[in-house]
Design goal:
single chain, 318 residues, alpha/beta, six-stranded mixed sheet, 6 strands, 9% strand, transmembrane, metalloendopeptidase activity, transmembrane helix, membrane, metal ion binding
Length: 318
């Protein structure tokens, strides 16, 4: 079960695309696009839950009111400047050398029996002849991300499209996080994986390499939920439970593991709280579209509930 939970964490780290979903009517409280009004606002602003691996055409085909909103808003608030982040990622690692370099007195062959080493070596060496310089947890994240993101060109995803559209239509663009914020959050969110012993890291990596279909199945589930616009199922708790149940039995004890709670705190709660220091200021300046990952919208600490708590009327677009 520990390997399965680490697999779920690795998967959620990759997304926080092409599955087919039968169209059904969307319940209002499950909508992906919300109007923010009241509390002194002269004009409404809007909150959009995106999915970083879904093509931008989905917005126009399936999200009611999106064309009207894109015409009405004067500003876009996105999570991060994705183009700048991509450029920096290509040049620098997100975790310091102390965390991802393999100790000089340890080799991969020491972490596995002969059969498992032969398998891991064949997979990793086919992608990087110098893979042994980095610890297993590093490759665990690389391979889980590759499985998820190797389906759509980044330029065609919703988030990139919205940035391009804002640029071409001369709308003001704001970013809720800096590149360094993302680097620090990824580091904190994944730190538990890097701090466990090399033997345990090796075991988790082997599990992922042998069970890539689990990640694909998890991605297809997430993609289907998003395209069906079932927002409440995308809360951290509900999605984690569904992903774990997809691949085996799950108990309350499993869902309450301390590292799952810590992961949620770093990747969801703390980021939402930080964004809520900026969002009221932005929407007071003029009609703004706040476009962030859909997992940040539902739940007690979700942006919808937090905005309501401080006096805004937040209602789904019909």
């Amino acid at each position: 079960m520990k390997n399965l939970i680490l697999l779920i964490i690795a998967f959620l780290s990759s997304i926080l695309s092409q599955a087919q979903v039968t169209k059904t009517s969307v319940k209002l409280e499950d909508a992906l696009l919300w109007e923010i009004s009241g509390n002194g606002l002269q004009k409404p602003s809007y909150l959009l839950g995106t999915m970083h691996t879904v093509e931008f055409r989905f917005m126009f085909d399936s999200i009611p009111g999106i064309r009207k909103v894109l015409s009405a808003v004067e500003q876009l608030a996105a999570e991060i400047d994705m183009q700048a982040f991509d450029s920096i990622q290509r040049k620098t690692p997100t975790i310091s050398n102390n965390y991802f370099l393999m100790p000089s007195d340890t080799t991969y062959s020491m972490l596995y029996d002969a059969e498992d080493f032969s398998f891991v070596d064949s997979v990793l060496s086919s992608g990087n002849a110098r893979y042994a310089e980095r610890i297993p947890a590093f490759w665990q994240n690389i391979y889980s991300r590759y499985i998820v993101y190797n389906r759509i060109k980044k330029e065609n995803c919703m988030d990139y499209f919205l940035l391009r559209l804002a640029n071409t239509s001369s709308k003001k663009i704001y970013f809720l996080e800096t590149v360094q914020d993302i680097v620090d959050n990824n580091k904190n969110g994944n730190m538990s994986e890097y701090e466990v012993g090399l033997k345990e890291q090796a075991s988790s990596l082997l599990f992922i390499l042998k069970n890539a279909d689990m990640i694909r199945n998890g991605y297809n589930l997430l993609d289907s939920i998003y395209r069906a616009q079932q927002l409440r199922r995308l809360s951290f708790e509900n999605l984690t439970k569904e992903l774990m149940a997809l691949n085996g039995q799950v108990t309350e004890a499993d869902l309450n593991k301390s590292y799952l709670n810590e992961y949620k705190s770093k990747l969801i709660n703390e980021r939402n709280d930080a964004w809520m220091l900026k969002i009221p200021i932005l929407i007071s300046q003029g009609p703004t579209l706040i476009a962030v990952g859909a997992m940040h919208l539902p739940g007690d600490v979700g942006l919808i509930n937090q905005l309501r708590k401080i006096g805004y009327t937040v209602k789904p677009m019909e």
